[in-house]
Amino acid sequence: MAKSITVQQAVDLIPDHATIMCGGFLGCGSAHSVLDELSKSSKKGFTIICNDAGLLESPAGEAYYGIAKLIHNHQVSHLIATHIGLNPEATEQMHAGELKIDLLPQGSMAEMIRAAGAGLGGILTRTGVGTLVEEATDYVHGKQTIDGVDYLQMAPLHADFALICGQKVDRQGNIWYKGTARNFNQVMATAADVVIAEAEEVVEVGSIEPENVQTYGILVDYIVNVGEQK
After folding, report:
1. Residue 69 forms beta bridges with which residues?
2. Are 165 and 200 in contact (CB under 8 A)?
3. Are 57 and 129 members of one domain?
4. What domain range includes position 144?
5. Which of 24, 44, 68, 145 has the smallest CB count inside 10 Å?
6. Which of 149-180 are b and which e, b meaning 16 or more Cβ less than 10 Å from the residue's Cβ?
7. What are phi and psi of 155, to 5 degrees?
8. pLDDT (tens digit, 9 = 90+) per residue, 99-149?
9. Beta strand 140-146 pairing with 123-125
10. 77-99 pLDDT, tens digit each
11. Is residue 116 one of the residues assigned to a domain?
């Protein structure tokens, strides 16, 4: 399996100050093994693009879930997310000036990532018109009026790395996600220079029916078989 690497090798690929997209929704669908190993490293200064800031406690009762481990260790300098309310440490670091946080409407962020993956110059959306979103000049490149309706022109979102997780990943990197764990993983796989897919189970090519492939192997650079490594 030419794309197969260990968790440690995945972490070794990621330098300080990298911009990283992390799939998942409150940890559901996140690449937990890679994030855990990254949290044990001395690497820092990351810009993280993620739906949220993770949770202080996992469903199993373990401390820190999703990207919360990286935030707890002060390895994140900039977080681009849709909400952070379930991780008070993120709020504390923001108020202390230790963590820059940019909040975007959830649907807008998903479409901004999709735009980067499709090579588009951005998206037009009515979401955020007349609100504080308009002041986010790093992401809002202007306003357009079409047929009398105002739209914000939002920039595409791109990353150096995407850390995604699939339930089944074949040896070429084709992925099937289970249920809602699909969330941001699918679109993030299109919008990063290097895509690392954590696999709950690695299967032979052809084991996933073509119509059930949700991320194509051509987008995946590396596979971490956590099912095997566990």
Report:
1. none
2. yes
3. no
4. 122-155
5. 145
6. eebbebbbbbbbbbbbbbbbbbbbbbbbbeee
7. -75, 155
8. 999 999 999 999 999 999 999 999 999 999 999 999 999 999 999 999 999
9. unpaired
10. 999 999 999 999 999 999 999 99
11. no
- Contacts for 134 with CB less than 8 Å, ≥ 6 apart: 128, 140, 143, 152
With tokens 């009515």, the residue in question is: 126
98 and 127 inside one domain: no
Q: Does residue 112 sit within a domain?
A: no
Number of domains making up the chain: 2
Quick check: 200 and 166 in contact, CB under 8 A? yes
Please indicate, yes or no, if residue 110 is contained in any of the structural domains: no
C-beta atoms surrounding 1 within 10 Å: 11
Query: DSSP string of 121-161?
Result: S-EEESTTTTSGGGG-TTTEEEEEEETTEEEEEEPP--EEE
Q: Whole-structure pTM over 0.90, yes or no?
A: yes
Pairing of strands 192-203, 159-170: parallel
Residue 219 and residue 230: Cα distance in Å, rounded?
A: 25
Angle CA 217–221–227, to nearest 5: 80
